[in-house]
Amino acid sequence: MTTTSPAKKPGGARIAVQRFGTFLSGMIMPNIAAFIAWGFITMLFIPAGFFGANSPFGWHWAPVAEILGGGGDAATIGWPGAATALTANADGGTYQGYVGLVSVMITYLLPLLIANTGGRIVYGARGGVVATIAVMGVIVGTNIPMFLGAMIMGPLAAWITKQMDKLWDGKIRPGFEMLVNNFSAGILGMILAIVGFFAFGPVFLGISAVLGSIVAFLVQFNLLPVLSIIVEPAKVLFLNNAINHGVFTPLGIEQAADTGKSILFLIEANPGPGLGLLLAFTFFGVGAAKASAPGAIVIQFLGGIHEIYFPYALAKPMTILALIAGGASGVAVNMIFGGGLAFPAAPGSIIAVTVAAIGAGPANLLVVYLSVIVAAVVTFLVAGVILRASRKRDQEAEGDSFAAAIDQTAANKGKESSALGALRTRAAGTTGSGTTESADHDVDAALGGLGGGVAVKQLNTIVFACDAGMGSSAMGASVLRNKIKKAGIEGVTVTNQAIANLDGSADLVITQNQLTDRAKAQSPDSVHVSVDNFMNSPRYDEVVEMVRSQHEAK
């Protein structure tokens, strides 16, 4: 019989910042593919790109680069129907030049996607539509890419729409619902677009200018490495999203649009510090931390899941100083030699970093690799000294400290994850202390028991749900999908979603235990099962057996 762990009530400034960061990342992360697409197009077709007029490889693809990258003379090239705009030439004159994809995507597509996503988070599809209309006014009212405006105006417009609908909720005569809903959203969107143009646009322009000035100040006086004092401890405490997605990504996109790359994309995403810390534990750690560190390196460095090294830092808080030193060293290398990424590396895997760095040329890629190596070496050396100095004391105290650090990491994040769950399993197996007691929901009660009983509710649609609906839930869905396939069961759909997108249509919803209450509120009629981690929960076999029993009973 399994037990249900009481949910911890969140509170405090740290949790508030975490929630804010989660909200910001919820707007950015679902649209990362669009950022990557823009990054590839920029990398290939701008004048300094792979196929541009000033290609570092001499691979000029004329006139395609001038059409897609923008700026090509329409009268000379003669490609019919493509959008053009008045463009200034080197002599001070003007001509009709192709608009291309680069400027249009960064000015309109990316901010509008962010606005729509933010609006949907707040108030579904209706909120997303009004948010998109409102942010269009902000975009046209400014002359720079309006990511910050989209991240603020989009959710605000959706919230206003939600409050407006409350005014006549239940008061509309039957048959007039569509008329009222469409016209009210359209009129509100129009008003917010006008307000965004004249009022919010200049405000966001001023905020962006201030933030840009701060970054310029840090660059001018070589102070960017100082940011590691904030970023590295924030990562361990899961406060990095508010900084990374709220400031670095919008400013980095603007910088990359001007110069083809941005150092800001590497301040948080550099995998070097985490690699160095895990290597230090591999050579100088003790017990479970030492044994599990090599496996964690693969997940962190190649998979880009940085949270895997956070328990190691929490088990030995002094090693955060090593992370700061390594992070600052990596930033310094990029600052001195001009390294940067063409677009955000998400997740922070060396593979994603490589793809985002190569666009600015082979020399830039070498600088970025150097920054990763230097960050890893510095972190390794500093952490090695710290671990060696306390090795004897750590061996005497070794026991539950690493497991406690994993628990603390989950508490800091506000939820368990597949990476932490796998780490917990490896740690338990290494120490020989047994497995961690499952905090899964009482699946026997939820599904009717496995002693030959069949759940009353037919399970045809199974949804794994997490915060973003992209990472850990996708892995969990893949695991269960493979188990169902191997069992020879057909007609069962296994997908993954964000909790906010649950619509009540799922027969069974599987979440990590800290998120189950939220999932129940979002989809109250579904059967809910919570697990410690999405990768290796024993509940999966119970679910498969129940589904098999139902199909055999048909």
UniProtKB/TrEMBL annotation:
Chief place where the protein resides: membrane
CDD domains according to UniProt: PTS_IIB_mannitol
Location of this chain's protein in the cell: Cell membrane
InterPro entries linked to this entry: PTS_EIIB-like_sf (IPR036095), PTS_EIIB_2 (IPR013011), PTS_EIIB_2/3 (IPR003501), PTS_EIIB_mannitol (IPR029503), PTS_EIIC (IPR003352), PTS_EIIC_2 (IPR013014), Sugar_PTS (IPR050893)
EC number(s) given by UniProt: 2.7.1.197
Stored Pfam families: PTS_EIIC, PTS_IIB
Domain of life: Bacteria
Function of the molecule: The phosphoenolpyruvate-dependent sugar phosphotransferase system (sugar PTS), a major carbohydrate active transport system, catalyzes the phosphorylation of incoming sugar substrates concomitantly with their translocation across the cell membrane. The enzyme II CmtAB PTS system is involved in D-mannitol transport.
Limits of the PTS EIIB type-2 domain: 460-554
UniProt cross-references to Gene3D superfamilies, sorted A to Z: 3.40.50.2300
Domain PTS EIIC type-2 residues, every copy: 20-395
Reaction catalysed by this enzyme: D-mannitol(out) + N(pros)-phospho-L-histidyl-[protein] = D-mannitol 1-phosphate(in) + L-histidyl-[protein]
PROSITE patterns: PTS_EIIB_TYPE_2, PTS_EIIC_TYPE_2
Residue ranges of the TM segments: 95-115, 127-160, 180-200, 207-231, 275-299, 320-346, 366-387
Membrane topology according to the record: Multi-pass membrane protein
The name this protein goes by in its record: PTS system mannitol-specific EIICB component
Keywords of this entry: Cell membrane, Membrane, Phosphoprotein, Phosphotransferase system, Sugar transport, Transferase, Transmembrane, Transmembrane helix, Transport
